[in-house]
Design goal:
It is a single chain. The chain is mainly α. Helix content is 49%, strand content 3%. The protein has 13 helices and 5 strands. A 3-stranded antiparallel sheet has the order 2-4-3. Helix 2 packs across helix 4 (79-98), helix 4 runs parallel beside helix 8 and helix 5 crosses helix 8 (186-200). The two termini are 28 Å apart.
């Protein structure tokens, strides 16, 4: 049976940019060690926070960072939520350290990742389910427990036949969520496995944000029906942003775009361009008109790729009345004053997953987990 995903399921314009940026990243490797360490820690915290938030974890990004970096306990939060944070971060560390070109996703890999993210939370951590599960709000019903291993065998064989890393990551991510091999933690495991595929192919890991959960779930629903275009678009945009984030860490100019460029692409940006011309102030009040000096102005840059891949722009100005030559920041709040604003301070985009409960749910209730 042919695999129901192809390059036609990926947005062509974004795919071209991803390919170009991937080549540019390869040419610049090895990146400076301090840059790599900074990116790793930033993505580790971001992935952990967003991935858990998708599953209903109520820890904030700041609280997640405190738990991971300082080992503190957050008052009013459950032990499970703390374990979800530390476990998911350990899973991220594992895929970062074990990614290699020849790596293949198999039963050992999937069960090992699940054991890490579910340690101390589920008694069945690292073991396939033996019961039926359901997904709340989804038309798809996961296959019976007896079909889990055969379906995974088929998936692993199919993944070896997909040469394109982005397609392999997309297809594997969906099929793991579709099969739902565990009682809980399937989404976290699927996202880590998807990032393991990317890292092994020389791509940076992606972060799927909790704010995009609705779009992500709708894309999964479409993929359940054999239509991968929506899911391919969601995941490819995340790859695009991560690549631009990496390149911006070594080339700050990639992180900023002049207002006049935005004005040619968006009516919203054009409106602000006309406003800015009306309130142009002396240079001594303004923001330097160069990307390299943007950090000193307190700006927090975000990859230009986000502009090209979305129709809605969130344009932030550092006090419009103090602008001489305007540089735009999209979608991210400025960092605290004591922290230098650099491309490595950008938080990536993060994930989603499906959570299920066993067939032994209380009578009258449909076993569930958020999708």
């Amino acid at each position: 049976m042919p695999i129901p995903i192809s390059s036609a399921d990926l947005p062509p314009v974004i795919r071209q940019r991803v390919d170009a940026n991937h080549r540019a990243l390869r040419e610049r490797r090895p990146l400076p060690r301090d840059v790599v360490a900074r990116l790793r820690e930033q993505l580790r915290v971001a992935h952990t926070y967003h991935s858990n938030a998708i599953e209903g974890n109520t820890l904030t990004l700041k609280e997640t960072r405190l738990i991971l970096e300082q080992g503190v306990t957050i008052g009013g939060k459950s032990l499970r939520e703390h374990l979800e944070a530390t476990n998911n971060a350990q899973g991220f560390d594992w895929i970062w350290d074990h990614a290699k070109p020849a790596l293949r996703i198999d039963h050992t890999t999937v069960r090992g990742l699940h054991e890490i993210v579910s340690r101390g939370i589920l008694t069945s951590a690292g073991r396939y389910r033996t019961e039926q599960v359901w997904i709340t709000g989804a038309a798809h019903i996961p296959p019976p427990a007896l079909e889990v291993v055969p379906l995974l065998d088929a998936l692993f064989a199919e993944l070896r036949g997909i040469r394109d890393p982005v397609l392999r990551m997309t297809y594997g991510h969906h099929r793991l969520a579709f099969i739902h091999p565990f009682l809980d933690g399937n989404g976290r495991t699927a996202r880590l496995a998807a990032n393991l595929v990317l890292l092994s192919a020389g791509y940076p890991p992606v972060v799927l944000r909790v704010q995009d959960r609705g779009r992500y779930y709708r894309a999964l629903d479409e993929a359940d029906r054999g239509r991968y275009a929506a899911l391919g678009g969601v995941l490819l945009r995340a790859v695009d942003e991560s690549l631009t984030l990496y390149l911006a860490a070594v080339e700050p100019e990639r992180a900023l775009v002049p207002l006049k460029t935005l004005a040619r692409r968006s009516p919203y940006a054009a409106h602000w361009a006309s406003t800015a011309r009306a309130v142009r102030m002396p240079a001594r009040y303004g923001i330097p008109a160069s990307p390299s000096s943007a950090a000193t102005a307190g700006l927090s840059p975000l990859p230009v790729a986000l502009l090209k891949s979305t129709s809605r722009l969130s344009v932030c100005f550092a006090r419009l009345t103090q602008i001489s030559a305007i540089w735009v920041v999209i979608g991210v709040s400025p960092p605290p004053p004591a922290v230098a604003s650099t491309p490595s301070a950008i938080v990536g985009r993060v994930g989603s997953s499906r959570r299920a409960s066993s067939a032994r749910a209380p009578s009258g209730a449909r076993a569930a987990a958020s999708r």
